[in-house]
Amino acid sequence: MLGFGPFLDGYFDVENQLIDYIRRKAEQYATANEQTKKQISSIDEFVIHKKKVLQHFLDALGGLPEEKNPLKPEITGIIKKDGFRIEKIIFQSLPSFYVTANLYLPDSDTPVPGILFACGHSLEAKAAPVYQKVCLDLVGNGFAVLAVDPIGQGERLQYWRNGKADVPGGIFEHTYAGIQCSLLGMSIARYFCWDLIRALDYICTRKEIDSERLGITGASGGGTQTSYIMLLDDRIKVAVPCVYISSRLAYLGTGQAHDMEQNLFGAILHSPSHDDFLASFAPKPVMVGATESDFFNVEGAVHTVELAREVYSLFGAENNIKLTIVPGVHGYAPELREAAVNWFRKHLMGLKPDFRTSDPEPSDAKELNCTKSGQLLGDFQQAITVHDLIVKELEKIKPDKQFSIEILQNTLGHKKGTGPKYPRVIAKEFVSDRIWREKVFFWSEKNIIVSGLLFKTDNAYADPVLLLLEEGTSEVEEAWELIECLLLSEGRDVFLFDPRGVGAVKSRKVNPSSFPFHFFETDYRLSCDAQMLGTSIVGMQVADVIRGVEYLSEQTGKERIVLAGRGKGALLATLTAPFCKTSQLRVSPLPECFSQIVKKRLYRPERVPILFGPLKQWDITDVYKYLKSKDVEIYQQLIHPLGSML
Question: Which residues in the chain are classed under CATH 3.40.50?
Answer without folding.
Answer: 6-22+409-635, 43-220+238-271+327-396
